[in-house]
Amino acid sequence: xxxxxxxxxxxxxxxxxxxxxxxxxxxxxxxxxxxxxxxxxxxxxxxxxxxxxxxxxxxxxxxxxxxxxxxxxxxxxxxxxxxxxxxxxxxxxxxxxxxxxxxxxxxxxxxxxxxxxxxxxxxxxxxxxxxxxxxxxxxxxxxxxxxxxxxxxxxxxxxxxxxxxxxxxxxxxxxxxxxxxxxxxxxxxxxxxxxxxxxxxxxxxxxxxxxxxxxxxxxxxxxxxxxxxxxxxxxxxxxxxxxxxxxxxxxxxxxxxxxxxxxxxxxxxxxxxxxxxxxxxxxxxxx
Length: 287
Prior knowledge:
CATH superfamily of the largest domain: Winged helix-like DNA-binding domain superfamily/Winged helix DNA-binding domain
Number of domains: 2
Number of helices: 9
């Protein structure tokens, strides 16, 4: 599928494709996946019977569809590449050596199975990022996870990167710092309050400018704008986390804490560490 003008990542919305545009292979694969889902449900025995007819539950069908989607090696490789970092479709195409039109098809299958979501960049709105839906992850055939210090980067270093560094230190006991490409004068009070609700303390933190990156650091950009402005190094990760500052709503900051903590928990699990520190609910404290 060629990219449309203004869609430099080459992944168009499914609504833009007419039925005539969908080839027989797409329809055949969807039907095959449904057959696989029903077969898997029968084997599991977690089904209902209606008038003697097999009737799998919606939850079972959804889980079987995820396994069916991951039965293709290319789609499994896509999911594994997204475990540690969000990617633009163009980056996925280059990293995996998959043509953009074929990648678009695989992404649509993964999205339909509830394994990935996409969102427009908060920096360059023409750009999109693909993100793994973490509760749906199966398999752990991913690359090396970091053992060195973490460096979280956003534009103003006043909210997301400060929260990410505090959460990393809390969960792992390992060093983590943060920095900004255009640091603010102080940490946003909404971030300080959200950290307090989660049992973290960042009130004494001060935004600082991104300088020389220490050797061995794992850099994670948590801001689309910073990610797109910087010359991203090999091995950097990107987490496309919405900025809570424009709305300044309590829920927006709490949602950022929850998303960052879920991402960090996934990395901790891959490291084989015991996630002793559990994420807090919006108004609870972390243990």
